[in-house]
Structure formats: C-alpha cells, structure tokens
Request: fold
Amino acid sequence: MSLLEKIKECVVQGHIDAGSKFPKTMQGKAGVRELTQKAIDEKTDVEEILSKALIPAMTIVGKRYENNEIFVPEMLFSARAMKSGLELIRPFLLKGSDLILGKVIIGTVQGDMHDIGKNLVCMMLEGAGFEIEDLGINVPAQKFLDAAKQDPDALVGMSALLTVTMKNMKNVIELLRDNDLKNKVFIGGAPVTPGFAEEIRAEGYAKNANQAVREAKRLMDISA
Ligand code: B12
Reply:
C-alpha cells in the first residue's frame, strides 16, 4: 500500500495517531497525523495528499454510512482524523501572497454542523490572498446579514452538506436582498448544484476548494 493509500485508509478507519485507541485493530500503529507528516517530509505535493488521500477517504466514509456499514460515531472519528491531516497541511495552503484580494464572509448555514469542506475552502481562499471572516457552523441568516452589512463589498460564501439545510441558503439570499445588500453570494457543499445556485439566485457556485478560489476571483473581477 502506498503512503497516500495508507493515509486514506486511516481516515476511513478514523485512526488519528499511534496514541489513538480507535479503532482497536490499529492501536499503536501510525495514524493520519504521522503518515501525513511523513508525506510532507517526503515532499509529496499537499494538493496530492488532499485529492488522493484525505478527500476521497471522506467519500468512502459517506458511502459506508449510507449503506449502514458505519454509524455517526465512526463518521465522527473519520472527521477528526481528516482534521488532524488538514491541520498539518494548512500552513502549506496558507503560504500565499501578502496581497489582499478582497474579503469573503463565509459560514455553514443554520442547522448544519459540517465544516470540513468549508474550512478547506477558507484555507485555499486565504492562501490565494483573500481575507476571511469565518462565521462558523449552524449560522443563522441574521448573522450573515449582520456581517454583510459591515462589509457591503465582501463576497458571502455559504456551505451546506445536508439536503434539508440547503434551503437555508435561499433564506440568507432573500434576507440580504430584502435589506438592499448587493454582496455577491457563492455557494457549495456536496448536495449543492449549479442548477440550485441559479434557482436561488446565488451569483456563484463551486464544487471544490480550488474552484472556489477561481469563482471568488471571477465574482470580484480579478483576472487569474
Ligand atoms: C464527516 C461527515 C459528518 C461529520 C461532520 C464533521 C465536521 N466537523 O464537518 C458528522 C459526524 C458530525 C456528521 C453528522 C451528520 N451527518 Co454527515 N457526513 C460527513 C461526510 C462523511 C463527509 C463530509 C466531508 O467532510 N466531506 C469532505 C469535504 C472536503 O467535502 P465537502 O464538505 O463536500 O466540501 C467540498 C465541496 O463541497 C466544496 N464546498 C463546501 N462548502 C463550500 C462552500 C463554498 C462557498 C464553496 C464555494 C464550496 C464549498 O468545497 C469543499 C472542498 O473541496 C458526508 C459524506 C459526503 N460524501 O459528503 C456525510 C453526510 C453529509 N452526512 C450526512 C448525514 C445524514 C449526517 C447526519 C444527519 C447524521 C445523523 N443522523 O446525525 C448528521 C447531521 C449533523 C448536522 N446537523 O449537520 C449525509 C447527508 C445526506 C443528505 N442528503 O442530506 C451524508 C451525505 C452521508 C450520507 N451519504 O448519507 N457528518
């Protein structure tokens, strides 16, 4: 098994590091933390660690959950394992420009606790030179409105991972427009589609963190 495959397997299994007690079968063995560090030390491209190990692992976890092979606690261990890898990668994604391209206000909409994807989008945007105001998870529409009022030129980014919380994106956009705010909005998250973005009149959509950077630049009229 290659190093990237090992990292992926550890995220799928929810094995954070050698000191972790979960899962029992992996106790004492190197986990996501040690293996990701090893990959970094070996000068593996961090984008590759993300795209070939960490992100696909979460897709597998999602499928296993859907098939009732694992349940919420296991999904949570995988999320923690993923975060331990992301922490190590973060400094590399942030070593961007000193130039501030613009500001992005971002959050996961009300009712939704998923933040791994949003955090990754934040890291990439920050690395590309955007200033980030991260409102966190479970963010009520009013909080988006208050932040947008403070920064009428900022982009507003929203994340949703649940089909039931996607509709809250629409509420935020309506609240912004009812208050005559013109902040451009871009959205993302696994169940979000370009069609949905169009339907709720979001100006932008991106399916991953790299595209989120491109989309933020497009919305701010910044050439690549
Ligand atoms: C990890 C996880 C959890 C963790 C979250 C931990 C955390 N801190 O985030 C925990 C265990 C807490 C959890 C809980 C639940 N989860 Co969950 N979870 C997942 C899982 C496995 C992975 C999500 C993830 O991190 N993916 C990796 C990241 C990198 O990808 P991403 O989030 O899609 O983000 C990328 C893009 O979408 C985009 N993007 C994301 N946000 C934004 C924002 C902007 C502005 C832009 C431009 C782009 C963008 O860029 C990101 C980076 O590339 C998914 C399965 C899946 N395949 O998505 C299920 C999943 C989302 N969960 C699901 C469910 C059902 C739940 C629960 C309801 C389970 C329960 N019964 O309690 C709860 C809900 C809690 C709540 N109220 O939010 C379902 C949702 C089904 C649906 N259609 O609604 C899924 C799809 C699993 C499944 N296959 O059934 N979950």
